[in-house]
Amino acid sequence: MPELAEVETVARGLKALRGRRLVGVFVHDGRDCLLTPGRLAWLCGRRLAAVERWGKWLGLRLADGHRQPLWLLLHLGMTGRLLRASAGAPLPPHTHLRFALDTGEELRYSDPRRFGAVQVLAGDELRQWLARLGPDALAISWTAFRARLQRRARIKALLLDQRVLAGLGNIYADESLWRAGIHPARPACSLSAAERMRLWRSMRVVLRQAIRYRGTSVADYVDLDGRRGAFQKHLHVYGRAGQPCRRCRTPLVRILLAGRGTVLCPRCQPEGG
DNA sequence: AAGATTACCTGAAGGC
DNA sequence: TGCCTTCAGGTAATCT
Description:
Elements: H1 4-14, E1 22-27, E2 47-54, E3 57-64, E4 67-75, E5 81-86, E6 95-101, E7 105-110, E8 117-122, H2 126-130, H3 142-148, H4 155-160, H5 170-180, H6 193-212, E9 253-257, E10 260-264
Antiparallel strand pairs: 1-6, 2-3, 3-4, 4-8, 5-7, 6-7, 9-10
Helix pairs in contact: 1-6, 5-6
The chain binds a DNA duplex (16 and 16 nucleotides) through residues 1-3, 32, 56, 75-79, 94, 112-117, 151-154, 157, 160, 162, 169-170, 219-220, 258-261.
């Protein structure tokens, strides 16, 4: 599941392609993912000028001399992949889009489960579009994070809400809460200042470690060059229900929260706080 | 109206 | 062996 660390890994790979010109766009099956299908043709002839990441979104800035820059925005959803390949290489199934580069290489966007999205924005539309996203989980300050938890919703639901905080998904929400010793079902506003600080710090440590290991590959995720991440070997709770807590050996418990499977240590993350 | 739940999608995995 | 059901989860839409 591409979350912040996986998207960051892809973004870093894309930065090696800065300066390359986009010479062709091919749509194979973009039924749902293409939010602005008519705009894809605008991209042709432009050069990749910059690569950004906002939460789980990738932003490719495509420049063309004096004209207004365009942004190609990509979300990998749950099973989305962005792969660099030579133009003649066999096309994997569920490839929705291909972007041909002036090097003879292609960027290929595939997504079997179709939860991803692709959008093209003019430069002056970006600010408004970004307003719907909360601050990036690695960029948010401690004071801003603390303030955003002043709500009654369960803390895990807030961590997953991209309008509150952008970048966390099911894996890193569970890992961050375990590291901070906070039960995912607790009302966010019930967390003390010390607990909020632990959570902010834990989130940052988990995400940075995950980026260092080039992301978590539990199922589909691979980077731009098809390589799996390695952080799945370092997960403490996600996917470990029934196994002993790495801190206290208590068997980990799985519950349903915010419609998501949630794994926690009942001893290290007491419900009462 | 904030917070909770459901729908969307499709491959993998398990049951019988 | 093969068909059926269930599960996975990011996000938007829908409920309460």
